[in-house]
Design a protein that fits this description.
Blueprint (H helix, E strand, L loop, with lengths): L34 H4 L33 E3 L2 E2 H14 L4 E6 L5 E3 L2 E2 L6 H7 L7 E6 L6 E7 L4 H7 L4 H7 L5 E4 L3 H11 L2 E4 L14 H8 L1 E4 L8 E4 H6 L2 E3 L2 H8 L4 H22 L6 H14 L4 E2 L4 E4 L20 E6 L1 E3 L2 E2 L2 E6 L6 H18 L10 H18 L8 H5 L35
Length: about 475
């Protein structure tokens, strides 16, 4: 395969020929240094430029060794794993087909005030590339064991980088992110037509269809749809242009999400290790909240954000629910601006995030630190149902997430009836209106295209929230 250069290739040996590697690092393919010794070396070159002195659009081990271990492309996930993911996707594609996935866009709060950038999860899963204005293409050849990884991105631009921060650039697309082919994102009109024209099937979730009745709200999608493929002129025919979408109209278009979600539904050992660490940090923050006295919901929200970051997390996985008393009756209450009463229960739905991987935890406890008798009875009823369902979350139980939900309903009905609640008919739906769980991973509600009706398998990660 063209992209089997693993582990990670040297960052700069290929694109910058004037920089000769004089103390090769652990990832230099020409290095003859042992693994144990190589991990202690700092890459330097014949010039005065060291890898750690160069700038990229995201943290790398060479620039941020306090955030990433050697070999990791993103926190907890090595470059080899990203390559294996692309190989796994390519194996799902028919011969002579391509998969096309676009990076997320920068979203704006107002005017030039932007929100923190968050990468598209499928794009991130396949590339580890954490910048906007990028496109990944995985092209399957007629050889079932061969595919090519194209990564089109923004080139280095000192003027733009002065305002927006560093970009990784095109050299890094091949030498850091292991792309076989790259090019400026602005050159897509000349780069994509040949790829699209030669593909028997195109798997993508980009709304290329020009006749769609729904106008795209995506700037990048509108940009792609506005592209015109350029055919070079010959002596007999002048240069012609036609919309890229017209090429796609004659191709067999299929959605990409189902294929990627089938892969994402099963976590690797690295993913599970990373998510377990995120879960542990979240749990300790929850314990920190429970051990303190609070007057206002927003105090807890601010403290948890601080505590997540203090524990090495990137911050909140989602807008947390800090709901005191009756505010907990709104499932997605996120104002978090009320005063807390010592007589009330507090529902806390929050989770940390690291390297795009998240956790989702919900707990309820008394604001005062002590349950009233009625609060304890209700808490115990829900806890009993939760313990029953958590015990079923193993492969040999042979149950699906939907079946776990059905069992949860039965357990809650039994427990609440014992407390005097009327939960006959549809009454239970008033107290329990949501599904008991969902998949988690790169997204809070991960892999929505993956069915909840199949039996749970080893490697899947879910929540249980009765």
């Amino acid at each position: 395969m063209r992209n089997r250069v693993l582990p990670r290739r040297d960052l700069f040996a290929s694109p910058i020929s004037s920089l000769k590697c004089t103390r090769a690092p652990w990832i230099c393919p020409s290095c003859r240094v042992s693994q144990s010794r190589a991990t202690t070396l700092r890459r330097t070159y014949a010039t005065t430029v060291a890898a750690a002195d160069l700038q990229f659009g995201q943290p790398l081990h060479e620039t941020h060794p306090h955030l990433l271990e050697a070999g990791e492309l993103t926190p907890g996930i090595p470059a080899l794993e990203y390559a294996n993911r692309r190989t796994a996707l390519a194996q799902k594609l028919p011969a002579n087909s391509i998969a096309v996935v676009a990076a997320a866009e920068v979203k704006y709060k107002s005017g030039v005030v932007f929100y923190p950038f968050h990468q598209d999860s499928n794009f991130f899963y396949l590339t580890g590339f954490n910048e906007p204005e990028a496109l990944a293409v995985i092209a399957k050849s007629s050889d079932p064991n061969d595919h090519t990884f194209h990564l089109y991105a923004r080139p280095k631009d000192p003027k733009s980088e002065m305002w927006e921060g560093p970009r990784s650039g095109l050299d890094a697309a091949t030498d850091v992110f292991n792309a076989d082919e790259t090019g400026p994102i602005s050159h897509l009109p000349t780069l994509l037509p040949a790829l699209f024209s030669s593909a028997s099937t195109i798997y993508t979730d980009i709304a290329f269809t020009p006749t769609s009745t729904k106008p795209s709200t995506s700037l990048f999608t509108r940009f792609l749809n506005s592209l015109k493929s350029t055919s070079p002129s010959t002596s007999s025919s002048p240069t012609t242009e036609k919309p890229l979408s017209s090429i796609l109209a004659s191709r067999n278009l299929k959605p990409l999400k189902p294929l990627v979600h089938d892969l994402r539904a099963f976590k690797s050992e690295n993913e599970i290790r990373l998510m377990r660490g995120v879960g542990q940090a979240t749990g300790r923050s929850f314990q920190g909240v429970m051990s303190r006295q609070w007057e206002y919901e927003n105090e807890i929200e601010a403290w948890m954000e601080y505590d997540f970051r203090r524990r090495g997390m990137d911050g909140n996985a989602y807008v947390p629910v800090i709901a005191g008393g009756k505010n907990a009756q709104s499932i997605h209450y996120t104002r978090n601006d009320d005063a807390l009463s010592p007589a009330d229960l507090l529902l806390l739905d929050a989770g940390a995030e690291k390297g795009h991987y998240i956790t989702d935890v919900t707990r309820t406890f008394p604001v005062s630190g002590k349950f009233s008798p009625a609060q304890r009875d209700l808490y115990t009823a829900v806890l009993n149902a939760q313990r029953t369902c958590v015990n079923l979350c193993r492969e040999d139980a042979g149950v699906s997430l939907d079946k776990v939900h059905e069992i949860t309903e039965n357990e809650l009905r039994k427990e609440l009836t014992g407390l005097g609640f009327d939960v006959r008919g549809k009454n239970l739906g008033i107290l329990f209106p949501h599904h008991v769980g969902h998949y988690i991973g790169l997204d809070v509600h991960d892999t929505p295209n993956y069915s909840r009706s199949g039996p749970l398998k080893e490697g899947q990660c879910i929540t249980i929230e009765p």
